[in-house]
Design brief:
The chain is mainly α. It is built from one helix and no strands. The protein is rod-shaped.
């Protein structure tokens, strides 16, 4: 009877060890997956930051182009006003 209990005890310990190994394997797998997900998140964050920087640069370029266009329109309007004034003074002479 003692031998039988001893065998059952050894089998029970073996089962606990085997379950522990299985649990450790699952823990290792979950850790690996979490590390992979963290790396993907870091990459996505870097990509988002790069895209935001590029968008900010494009917005700055567009703003500078708009300011240049406004200056061109102002110069054109000034030229038209000078031509109109010149025409008006030539007609009244």
């Amino acid at each position: 009877m003692k031998k039988l209990l001893s065998v059952f005890g050894i089998l029970a310990i073996g089962g606990v060890v085997a379950a522990g190994c299985s649990s450790q394997s699952q823990i290792d797998q979950a850790t690996s997956q979490a590390e992979g997900s963290a790396q993907q998140a870091a990459t996505a964050s870097t990509n988002a930051q790069n895209s935001a920087n590029a968008a900010a640069g494009s917005a700055k370029n567009a703003q500078e182009a708009a300011a240049g266009a406004q200056d061109s329109v102002k110069r054109a309007n000034d030229a038209v006003a000078r031509l109109e004034a010149e025409f008006a003074s030539s007609v009244t002479k």
